[in-house]
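Slide 14.
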Amino acid sequence: MVMAVSLQARCVFLGAPGAGKGTQAKRVAAAASVAHISTGDMLRQEVAAGTPLGRAAKEFMDAGKLVPDEVIISMVQERIRQPDARAAWILDGFPRTLPQAEALDRNLPREAALTHVIYFAVPEAALVGRLSGRRSCSRCGAIWHVEHQPTRREGICDRCDGELLQRSDDRPEAIGKRLEVYRSQTAPLLAYYRDHQVLREVDANRPPDVVYQELLKLMQ
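Slide 15: predicted structure.
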């Protein structure tokens, strides 16, 4: 059972791949009834549907590269305008570059400006272990881990009996590239948001429940 909490935050969850942003964003959004806007999930839906955007994005995602800014910015702007995102939202996976961050600031009305940017700090060695062992259910989308959160039957989802798959960008050949891209293109956002006085940091290399409780305090 999810305990309801009250939040009026417009927040970016920032951190390297595997830092736990998506898991925590879903949990906080469900508890606070705010919109969870995951650009990764949105792109994967496009890929699964075989849309032109999905086909174009898949080439970048499979190589561990970022999808071009103009594609992501347009997608996020449209999502924020929807009714469920008017009061509060959590952006998960966006922005990932300085041009994206600047575009977000330009397109948000003053009364709907960012209130928080929360950086999920995790050592790189831990990130590699998290990513390489992560598995996603092909049916319901649940996330598992071969070591930290295994299913009762190997390769089968405990929730719906769907097949567990490893995302193409969680394979060893893509992980190194993803972390390299993060260091060069996303890490500079820390200084940008620190200068804007909205950056908060959470030690995300701890049990998920501990991280969750600290997030609720930071976002009040």
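Speaker note: The chain has nine helices and eight strands.
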